[in-house]
Amino acid sequence: MKQVLMSTVILAVFLAPAPAETWKVDKAHSQVTFSVSHLVIAEVRGRFKEFDVTMYHENDDFTDARIEAVIRAASLDTDNERRDNHLRSDDFFNVEKFPELKFTSSSMEKTGKNTYKLKGDLTIRDITKPIVLDVRFNGAIKDPGGNTKIGFKATTTISRFEFGTKWSRVLETGELIAGEMVDITLLMEFEKES
């Protein structure tokens, strides 16, 4: 009887799922950036300076990864104080009423050797919509301090109108001064939590 019990315990240990690994974003080496057309002929680029991103996964290929991100809306910076204040207003993000942008993943599908489609829900203001990001895994390495790091680049394009940021003036050509489509690029370096 003892032998059967011991065998069952050993089997349970080996068959138990691996504990989820937790990775926190290294903010000093990560970026959340965006760009949008201006006057049709140029682009305005910006970034969010304050954000938290956490990733959990058990599979080595990240196909079960769960990602949670929170971005402080007021931390946006386009290198122009007047424009930044306008973007923080109710015409765009309304940071007083909606201080955070949020993303929660729903799936991470492997599409190639180091590429994925990351699906999830993005919340801007009080509107939540599903989005898909193209993700490239850049590899894993130990830094000089012995910390395990992994890197990803993710990109997507969203319609700002779908998230309630509809302000714009129209040029005499009929084009928008500030474009509807926003390109988003995330450069993420994660450190494994011990």
Count of discrete alpha- or pi-helical segments spanning 4 or more residues: 2
Name the average pLDDT: 87
Structural class: mainly beta
Return the CATH topology.
Answer: Lipocalin
Give the N-terminus to C-terminus distance in angstroms: 38 Å
Overall strand count? 11
SSE sequence, one letter per element: HEEEEEEHEEEEE
> What form results from the Cα inertia axes?
elongated
Whole-number radius of gyration? 21 Å
Helical fraction: 10-25%
> Which blocks of ≥5 consecutive residues have pLDDT under 50?
8-18
> What strand line-up does the widest sheet have?
1-4-5-7-8-9-10-11
Please report the first level of CATH classification, the CATH class. Answer: Mainly Beta
Work out the count of structural domains: 1
Supply the CATH superfamily name: Lipid/polyisoprenoid-binding, YceI-like
Beta content comes to: over 45%
Q: Biggest sheet, open or closed, and with what strands and sense?
A: 8 strands, antiparallel, barrel
CATH architecture title: Beta Barrel
